[in-house]
Amino acid sequence: MDVLVMIVAAIVTVIAVGLFVRTVVGFVRQFRVGKSINRTDKPAVRTLTLLKEVFLATRLKQKPVGPIVAASHLIVLIAFGVLFFTLVTAYGQLVNPDFALPLIGHWPPFSYLIEILSWLMVLAILILIGVRVTRRPNPQEPRKSRFFGSTMWQAYYVEITILAIGIFVIALRAAEYARGSVQGEEFINSNFPLTGWIGQNWTGLSLEALATLIMLLAFGKILVSMAWFVTVAMTPTMGVAWHRFLAFFNVWFQRNANGKPALGQLEPIRYDGVALDFEKLDDFPDDIALGVTAMTDFSWKALLDFSTCTECGRCQSQCPAWNTEKPLSPKLFTIAMRNHAHAISPWMTATEEERANLDPALIELAEKPLVGDDGVIADDILWSCTTCGACVNQCPVDIAHIDHIVDIRRSQVLVQSEFPTELNGLFKNVENKGNPWGMNASGRNDWISEVDFDVKVFGMNGEDTIPEDIDYLFWVGCAGAYEDRAKRTTKNVAELMNIAGVSFMVLGEGETCTGDPARRAGNEFLFQMQAAQNIEVLNEIKATKIVVTCPHCLNALKREYPQLGGNYEVVHHTELLNDLVKAGRLTPVNKIDQTVTYHDPCYLGRHNQVYNPPRELIGATADSFVEMDRNRDKSFCCGAGGARMWMEEKLGTRINQTRGDEAIATGAKRIAVGCPFCSVMLNDAVNTRQQEEGRAVGVEVVDVSTLLLNAAKS
Amino acid sequence: MKIAVCVKQVPDSWAEKKLRDGDSLLDRDSVEAVLNELDEYAIEEALQITEAQGGGEVVIVTMGPERAGEAVRKALSMGADSGIHLVDAGLAGSDAAATSYALAKLLEGRGFDLIMFGSESTDARMSVVPSMVAERLGLPQLTFANKVEVSGGTVTIDRVGDNGIETISAATPAVLGMIERSNEPRYPSFKGIMAAKKKPVETVSAADAGIDMSAVGSAGSWSQVNSFAARPPKAAGVVVQDEGAGGVAIAEFLDAQKVL
User: Fold this and answer.
1) Cβ contact (<8 Å) for B194 and A284?
2) Chain A positions with Cβ closer than 8 Å to B
3) How much of chain B, in percent, has pLDDT values that exceed 90?
4) Residue B21's pLDDT is what?
5) Is pLDDT at A289 greater than 90 in this prediction?
6) Pick the residue with more confidence: A268 or A1?
7) B207 has a chain A CB within 8 A of its CB
């Protein structure tokens, strides 16, 4: 029998390892099909980031899932690696029941480590199984579960394998103790702190019986391990298993070496790995592929992202689209891309000639469009994204969902002309009129006639660069110039700067849309035209310090223009005003006696990490401040980002209403915001509730600057 | 089916426009030039007709200075097949009648089944060129068209007028003027923009088109601008503070204006 067991174990192992290696090679071949992108800068920093994200669980411990799951995961992660030694031991035990690893096998520190980790792993995996079982989709509200759409059997299978391995290790060690004890071995006294007590029950067995027990347990352990290898090798789409290997690479190769989430600026549009400059349009090849039309247009990092997705659903639980019954979930999007990539992997990795000879069914599948009614994902999935960044911020394995979604949008807009018709108007207005609303450039200075102090407009006194004595160029923005609520913010900020003695200048008709909505809608061509125009003006007049009231302008000017040669020091008005208050140049005299809550705009918060200045300002101007449940980097989008401001919201419930209701529920009478779009969206939500008897009475949506101006003036 | 779409490059519709002192013509250099917005509906309709028929040809026709070629490219980027650009310094200052004469000469004998226009240009806003061209070519005119249907040799439209909608039809070839409610003009794809660079645009001089130069240009136009003046700035209104007698004050004001 011994020989039979050895032969079976050897055959199973050879098959398992063979299949596993084959699948790993398959992964590498598929990733190599992806377009090039440089992700190897600052290798030392990247390694440090990887160590931090793995061993400090910096991403995983985030709310709302929290530290218990993160700690349990960390234990399993470490134990599953370290206990590989026990698998090696198990092979030895098939041959010799008294086998121990050379040098460390009976070295107490090693034994302690193995025993502690085994027990902890069993405990941790039971916690994780418990979490999965209790959080599984329930039939009444399945979408509320972050596991909705995750392949549950795969996760349970992985977890039960881990549990079984843990139990096998403990049982094996107990049997080793018993056999050592019967043989009167010295080492048993210092090597079995947590399993000896079990082994003591077996010391009555014969040496022979204990040898058989050890052999069978070792054989069982090997079979469970090899079954796992075979299963995952046969299922390359089993993200929950493959993340065990891929996540390390995905984290190391993430966009920012320092581990900051892939937010703020978008990845530039690339062709053959090189960022495209649309100014050199004439040099482009005729058949240039822009954005992602087919799976093979993604970068290798995108393909790695898809395969690494563990289906944990943290992104899904945060997504404003998903939480308002829209078809988009960042997780389901990623799963759909991954599954399709693996389904057509043989086609992707084949050469042009080889492709012709492939199975017609595979060719047909490979030609399936990524987007559309008969595509991999529906149009509504692609266009529901507000690019709020909640998913990217949550993802424990650093998947950059927004980059991939926008890359597909780029193809839809630039190549296929398939996009929501409302965007037609947006694009035309930005292109022809320089603002999304289609207003006249001559109206950019209208607000100036509504204030009773002087506002310097660039060029009015014949200046051709910004004069030395000007502290800031005040970038008013399209909303700030044309939209009534935002215009009030513009006037507030101008007045506050005036009071504080900050000298500023505006560009007036020289300003045009930064291109942010066009870029998020996938129209990189239009974005670059706008950006080039603005950068030319800003560089020519030697603009250095810029203050904005719109977080979307902030993001474009500060994070995206450097990609095209525009480098400026850009601050949001809440940052500037807070500095002025701290410096004593603005003094709130009369605090308002109402409770205030604050809504973090995505492009100010998550995309640009400005969380404290607006809060400090509110603290200086209001008696009491209350947070919404979802705040700071967990803030819930107002629904207007990602060019959604200019698209109708036809599906599900309204995002702005969800957020508005959350704000109203705090009982605050003032909902402070720092973004013109959030202001419009939340104001709509509050107005809707105020139509109903007795709801949201006296609640007002105001810009933080309004609070400060009221407090500073009264 | 071969369709001509006549387009015009106009100064940005919403920008402040000025007439030049010397020749009383519109100062086109000081404002951004764009493709006449209403023409986009005609282009879109033409493209939809050929797409529905699974073939055909859409030719963009324009008359204007060198720079008007940009408007043709823009139209080509939407998907039209080729362009004809009538350029001649002698054409500058042509009024509606002269323009219609030049266009008719340019279009005649080219075998178009449909000649389409936007119902008016946003700069001159005469709304008569489509009818004039139809008249000069002796073709039926279907203007202020909303819905268009082409079957066999017949074109049928919904003509949107002040008093209602008439459904009228005519045999092709015919001239159509499209209104802005007819469709949603497409946004040119990047691919379209790239392709437009390679599409043929035939440049034609007035002589090539057989145009009699005495019938075009400022001098050849039927209408002449003798003088012009800027619209006087709006006078400040009268503000009546209502202190109980507001109604009476308004009545007195209206009486003084002889409205009552």
Assistant:
1) yes
2) 281-282, 284, 286, 288, 290, 413-417, 421, 423-424, 427-428, 432-433, 440-442, 525
3) 64
4) 81
5) no
6) A268
7) no
Distance CA B43, CA A425 (A): 17
- Asked if the C-beta of B194 comes within 8 angstroms of chain A's C-beta atoms, the answer is yes
Q: Which of B12, B14, B189, B190 to mutate to test the interface with A (most CBs of A within 10 A)?
A: B190
| Contacts A–B by Cβ distance under 8 A | 40
Please give the average per-residue pLDDT across A150-162, as a whole number. 97
Strand partners, A474: A506, A547
- pLDDT at res. B31: 79
Contact A415 B16 (CB under 8 A): no
Selected for mutation to probe chain B from A287, A431, A433 (highest B CB count within 10 Å) is A433
Assess contact for A330 and A315: CB atoms under 8 A: yes
Query: Is A232 in contact with A238 (CB distance < 8 Å)?
Result: yes
Interacting residues of A2 by C-beta distance below 8 A, sequence separation 6+ = A94, A215
> Nearest residue on chain B to A418, judged by CA atoms?
B189
Q: Does residue A538 or residue B248 have the better pLDDT?
A: A538
Chain A residue with minimum CA distance to B192: A415
pLDDT at A1: 64
Mean pLDDT over each residue of chain A, to the nearest integer: 95
The token pair that represents A251 in the structure block: 């984290």
**A342 versus A461: which is more confidently predicted?**
A342
Residue A621: predicted pLDDT: 94
Q: What's the confidence (pLDDT) of residue A517?
A: 97
Share of chain A above pLDDT 90, in %: 94
Cα separation of A485 and A481, whole Å? 10
Pick the residue from chain B with its C-alpha nearest to A286: B194
- At residue A714, does pLDDT exceed 60? no
**Which residue from B14, B187, B195 is facing A417, i.e. has the nearest CB?**
B187
- The CA distance from A413 to the nearest CA of chain B, in Å, is 7
pTM score, whole prediction:
0.90
User: pLDDT tens for residues B36-60?
Assistant: 999 999 999 999 999 999 999 999 9
Q: Which positions ≥6 away from A221 have C-beta within 8 Å? A: A86, A87, A90, A165, A168, A169, A172
Query: Chain B closest CA to A353's CA: distance in Å?
Result: 27
Contacts of B12 in chain A (CB under 8 A): 432
Q: Which of A288, A427, A442 sits opposite B187 (nearest CB)?
A: A427
Rounded CA separation A229/A235 (Å): 10
Rounded to 10°, the helix A84-95/A152-182 angle is: 50
Which H or E element spans position A573? helix A573-582
Q: Per residue in A491-535, pLDDT tens?
A: 999 999 999 999 999 999 999 999 999 999 999 999 999 999 999
Instruction: Say yes or no: ipTM exceeds 0.90.
Output: no
Distance CA B4, CA B116 (A): 6
* pLDDT at A671 > cutoff 60: yes
Two tokens, residue A107: 């070295």
